[in-house]
Amino acid sequence: MKIVQYTLLFFLISTLSFAQKKSLTLEDAVIGRSSYLRPESPRSLQWQDSKHYVLVENDTLFQYSVPKNQKEVLLTLSDLTKAESNQEEWSFSSFPSFSFVNSNTIRFWKSRQMILFNLADKRIDQKLSLPETAQNIDFCDASLSLAYTKGQNLYIKNAQGEKQITFDTAEGVLNGHYVHRREFGISKGIFFSSTGTKIAFYRKDESMVKDYPLVDYMARQAEHKPVKYPMAGMTSHQVTVGIYDMTTGKTHFLNTGQPDDHYLTNISWGPQDEFIYLAELNREQNHMQLNQYAVASGEKLKTLFEETSTTYVEPQHPIVFSEKNPEQFYYWSRKDGWFHLYLYDTTGKQIKQITHGNWEVTDFYGADNQFVYIQATKENPTERHLYRVKISNGVMTRLDEAAGTHRGSFSPDKNYLIDNWSANAVPGKADLLATNGRFVSNIHTAEDLAADYAFGKNEIFTIKAADDSTDLYCRMILPPNFDSSKKYPAIIYVYGGPHAQLVNNTWHNAVSWWQYYMASNGYILFTVDSRGSANRGEAFENVIHRKLGLTETEDQMEGANYLMNLPYVDADRIGVHGWSYGGFMTLNLMLRHPETFKVGVSGGPVVDWSMYEVMYGERYMDTPQENPEGYQETNMVNHVENLQGKLLLIHGAQDETVVMQHSMKFLRECVKQNKPVDFFPYPIHEHNVYGKDRLHLMNKISQYFFDYL
């Protein structure tokens, strides 16, 4: 009798607990996820030196010693405020974000001033004011100098004042900006040397690229706002690399030779500023040379080594010189089919491959005399773990313990690390570890601010790809009040292309909370990382070469078939949604398998790869001239006749990534074939919709599924 009573009591408590859970609103899912429901991270947690780390608590900067974790006040907000007599311009609402110049000096921004602050003396050592029009800002700790662009040209500023470095006025020429549309790991255009006395910079000439018309519809009279957009097979911009010497005040350019439209990537300075290294790639992107240049003359000295491929070579990581031996460097490459670390010398000789295996190095944190320190997918492609690897023999030691996604921040001497990690049920933790694998202490454990909300079951599992042998990782979300005896509509959320992985063991398995919202409204949400997506090796990714969308669609259909064979999924109500490459994949699924998909929402879709940009497009498809059949088959306009279900296209009116022309051509073909289709443009927005307007976007998408699925 007591057992029955206890069982009934447990049931009642569990039911009451579930009933008290909050329902997730769309605002919670879209706005709250990144604000009031976002787990708190430790503020400004970073290494001060090899014996201390710091973090900000209650507007006080605390210093912690390792390994004992003794805590001391380093700087208060009051100390900071008192350092400047002009209180009107020096008030702080909270402790500013900062970074270390050295163990006694931090730098931070106040309005448009960069402040160097002395921690020991609690004084301002230097202020550098930034011009209102400055962009592409970079700072050098070694020379305490700022470099930035104003308009077309590059400037430098330090205690001696501002100096203009380049003087271009011709239309279409930019100095110090990123190049090659941020492909090949490029994110900036200014590179200080290790000593801080020289600057390498990109000079981009786009004058030969046709203007692409964008329109600002918000002006009183709409204004033409053209951008440079080189499409696949067309004329691309030309890039050179300049070297500015702060000692002599002179600039010269590297003699990188012909042809003009090759790619200059992964700039790296040699240890003594005598040499500079570039990974140079032909326009076909199947032949890479790592070249060494003399800084003084700009002349190419030698090619250290080359990489070729029948598909493509994609250098993404600059070489990193050994601190122990300036004649050796670490090279991070996929040349054996997986991203691994190699040790080379400056003659171009490969000394050894340090890491091996059918898994990928996903981050490289540096090295000491014995070990390299990495993040990798060795345990599981959906997780990231931290390792030290012995350089001499490749023996690996895992440094973290828990399942999940771990990011490392290592002390300068590599004896300790801060392990920032999360997992499906772990909002976030920061742990102090020794690099021999010993746990030292927990620094921070985030509170789950969404603990009171009702979330459906979120699970990662595998299915087989269309080749019947490759495992594909999937994520499925069930409604919070799931009843296996019912039939639910399902929505596949898709990306499917290179450089993206959607299924990861992080907090809530990296899901967009819009999917939780839809699940709470009675839908099952499903995602599969098909072949072509990231972090599974070269063969997994480059199977899509010259035929984008075909293999991915086959694999996504394996996911759809898995769903439709579940007893609680309504096979007549399957929807699909994705953005960018995912928008392209939404069209592929709707048009190649109209019998399966009832509703689709395609955001910012690539429709015709011949209208996509040179660098990305030609890597995966070659040129339209070289691969006419591939471009014909992957052009969604050519499959409009198959459209049966309800389809909504959404596009940002100012999209510079996937230009509006894609949607316009698709819509025109729908009109010609009398195919009903819905369309919604977002004024002022580019390749996606962010800020407060995103709530409108997600409501639009949600309502489309509510209405038709």
Task: Please explain how this structure is put together.
This protein is of the alpha+beta class and 709 residues long. Among the domains are: 86 residues, Thrombin, subunit H (Beta Barrel), CATH 2.40.10; 256 residues, Alpha/Beta hydrolase fold, catalytic domain (Rossmann fold), CATH 3.40.50. The protein has an eight-stranded mixed beta sheet, with helices on both faces. Strands 13, 14, 15, 20 and 21 form a five-stranded antiparallel beta sheet that branches. A four-stranded antiparallel beta sheet has the order 1-2-3-4. The two termini are 48 Å apart.
Give me the secondary-structure topology.
Layout (H helix, E strand, L loop, with lengths): L1 H18 L6 H5 L12 E7 L2 E6 L2 E6 L5 E6 H6 L16 E4 L2 E6 L2 E6 L4 E7 L5 E6 L4 E6 L2 E6 L2 E4 L8 E3 L14 E3 L5 E8 L5 E2 L2 E2 L6 E2 L2 E2 L9 E8 L4 E4 L9 E7 L5 E7 L5 E8 L5 E9 L11 E2 L6 E6 L6 E6 L4 E4 L7 E7 L3 E6 L8 E6 L5 E3 L6 E6 L5 E8 L2 E9 L4 E7 L12 E7 L6 E7 L10 E6 L19 H8 L3 E5 L9 H5 L7 H15 L4 E11 L1 H12 L6 E5 L10 H8 L6 H7 L11 E7 L8 H12 L5 E5 L10 H16 L1
Parallel strand pairs: 40-41, 40-42, 42-43, 43-44, 44-45
Antiparallel strand pairs: 1-2, 2-3, 3-4, 5-6, 6-7, 7-8, 9-10, 10-11, 11-12, 13-15, 14-15, 15-20, 16-19, 17-18, 20-21, 22-23, 23-24, 24-25, 26-27, 27-28, 28-29, 30-31, 31-32, 32-33, 34-35, 35-36, 36-37, 38-39, 39-41
Helix pairs in contact: 6-7
The top level CATH class name of the domain at 453-708: Alpha Beta
Helix proportion: 10-25%
Number of strands: 45
What is the structural class? Answer: alpha+beta
Number of helices: 11
Fraction in beta strands: 35-45%
CATH topology of the domain at 453-708: Rossmann fold
Radius of gyration: 27 Å
Mean pLDDT: 95
Sequence stretches where pLDDT stays below 50 over 5 or more residues: 1-18
Oligomer: single chain
Spatially, the strands of the biggest sheet line up as 38-39-41-40-42-43-44-45
Shape type: globular
First and last CA, distance: 48 Å
CATH H level, superfamily name of the domain at 453-708? Alpha/Beta hydrolase fold, catalytic domain
Largest sheet: 8 strands, mixed
CATH architecture classification of the domain at 453-708: 3-Layer(aba) Sandwich
